[in-house]
Amino acid sequence: MSTAHEALRVRRCGVLAFAVSLALAASPALSQDAADEGVAEERATSLDTVTVTATRRALDIDRVPVAVTAIGGDDLVAANVQDTQSLSMLAPSLVVTTSGSEAGGAVIRMRGIGTAASNPGLEGSVGVLVDGIYRSRSGLALTDLVDIDQIEVLRGPQSTLFGKNTSSGVINIQTKKPTFVNEGFVAASLGNFDSTVFSGAWSGPVVDDTLALRFSAQYNQRDGYVHNTFDGRDYNNRDRWLARAQALWTPTEDFSLRLIADAVQKRENCCAAPYTQYGATAAFLRLLGGTLPAYDGSYQVAFDAEVRSDVDEAGLSALMEWDLGWATLNGTLSYRDGKSLVMSDGDFSDVDIAVLTGDEGSAITRISEFTLRGQGERIDWMVGAYLGWEEVGFDGQTLFGALAGNYFLGVVPPAPVLPLYTVGTGLQQRRARQSGRTQALYTHNIVHFDHGIDLTLGLRHVREDKDGYGFSVSNSPSCTIPGLPAAARILCGVPLYSASYGDERTVGVASLAKNFDGGGSVYFTYSTGFKAGGINLDPANAVGGTAAFEPETVTSYELGLKKPLFDRRLFLRAALFRMDYDDVQLNTFDGLGFRISNEASARSQGVELEADWYLAPGYKLRGGYTYNKAEYGEDTFNAALHGRQITNAPKHTGLLGFDFDRQVGDKMLFGSIAARYQGEVNTGANLDPAKRQDAYTLVNARVGLRFRNDFEVSLWGNNLTDEYYNMVIFDSVAQAGSYNGYPGLPRTWGIDLRKRF
């Protein structure tokens, strides 16, 4: 037996032993604990009422006509979900991927729909809000989850209440508020890859019942898991921190003001992409002295340039609530400033062909929003106004390396080459800027009829305007020599171009629901939504391509059922959905650049199932399943996409988890094990068969002890079966027939120490 197979066998045995020990720890008390029916009933129904704000109101999750998954802060800790990207372990219809960097290559998909974000002019299909504040770019939304109260994953169009760029759904993150009692925690986590995470929070009163503060912070460091054979460095690491400070002022019972300041910093060597397949050009790379690591799941690359991803983001926000007696006025003001720097090996090899010396991005957003809500005997009404500004910028540089001429002209040193691609020449400057303004008025109303019938009607009218420009400056000799074929002109400049975009539209929602006396509901919802159009901020592809692109629109139909059963110990939620999209925005990399297009149509339809089953006091089984037939229409401009499953949209996704806690003497033994199955996907926007990712299953687990003084220690493991999978596979840069892929995180494990107070 080979060493690799023996190591795999040992790893799988270790995983089995961990899972068996977890099950044995839980099993002895199942029948014993069930004997106390009074306790069983109390524990089984203690989590029955889950309040969500999916309709911008605090309502029972089972009476909201929206497909929503609510995840509590303690659930995140138990499942070892540390960041937004990991939320898919708890929400089956959610897929989050990253490619070149988190800042510029993050894509959040809901029900199969999302937008590749490497072009700063593109915005996401899934909106992310943190404490009610919209994060305008998916990459800036991939934050660590610290001191969280609850996360709501809303599926389907949410444009009426949450605005543009929520055509597929919303991730609504709510951090814990300041409290008028002293509370908090400190925690430390140590793991493989020299992982170290320190976090903590404190909250308490400054003036009783009037002014309270809350502070939370985290430092997260981990070595990389992709090894560079060229210089021995490890890529795809973690080196980041975040901090949040809050103040809650309640001078009267009718008025509150919450102030939040937060900051995030990332300094990481990310993201490296090993080869997944070699084409004909690979042989010539070897002749030029290149190293071609095996694409066998060994997480290896050979880069001769720095790989780096920096993010600096900070924000201020103010959230007001004022009970006027006849209505409640809510106001939100926010300012956010985000900057990023991405450096990469432009050719993804250790042959000195090209280098990205630094792509700098920036996004500044200012938001003002006010809502007025009132309730009568029959109607719960709301009106709102929204005004947002955004300024987006991009600067970059791509230069030829010492062997660019040899590679592009097919000449092996020391033979001379024509001076077409001189080292240090190329795109000396790439620049793009965009400013935009969004204005909206909206209303959302719930009419209560007899017999538990609710009718929800909402409208939102939006006006959006954007102005932008871009250009690039090149000193590549290949771009100035007359008579040279177009194919030989590489890294050429683009003259200054400018474009304007304006759009005005109305979206809405209509829902009819029947609320059952014993809890739960059945509903039908019709809704429309959109994702903003804009300006192509990639100068290399805006001229001669698409300088401006159209909005993406959706019409959705959803039939849902939410029902408690068996004395409220089994909770079922199901949704049948169909979402019809027009002018789907695509951003496709073809090996030379990214191309934006508005494909004609797409449809996402299927079924979602979720269940929580309280087996006995302290024992819960949870599961979820999504069948999603997300396909492009037959009228797409690219005939290769006709009727095919959309990029990174699995047809089948399933979750299964088991949580327990049981008394052991004066201590509490607790644990959790969860598995997520994701079906086969094609990770490429052009659906090239070489970009297919097979189905895989991720298994996470945790087991620990909680002591009487609220101190706990736990062991955890993620991706316990050490699955190798790629989030995105793409055409290798200027290497026809070769492909690279961005791999997911391998198996990680560690120990957590946590003290609550």
Automatic annotation (TrEMBL):
The keyword Membrane applies. It is found in: Cell outer membrane. It is a multi-pass membrane protein. Keywords: Cell outer membrane, Ion transport, Iron, Iron transport, Membrane, Receptor, Signal, TonB box, Transmembrane, Transmembrane beta strand, Transport. One of its GO terms (biological process) is iron ion transport. A motif (TonB box) lies at residues 49-55. One of its GO terms (cellular component) is cell outer membrane. Residues 62-170 form the TonB-dependent receptor plug domain. The keyword Cytoplasm does not apply. Residues 291-720 form the TonB-dependent receptor-like beta-barrel domain. It holds the Pfam family TonB_dep_Rec_b-barrel. Residues 1-31 form the signal peptide. PROSITE patterns: TONB_DEPENDENT_REC_1, TONB_DEPENDENT_REC_3. Belongs to the TonB-dependent receptor family. This is TonB-dependent receptor. It comes from Luteimonas aestuarii. The lineage of its organism: Bacteria, Pseudomonadati, Pseudomonadota, Gammaproteobacteria, Lysobacterales.
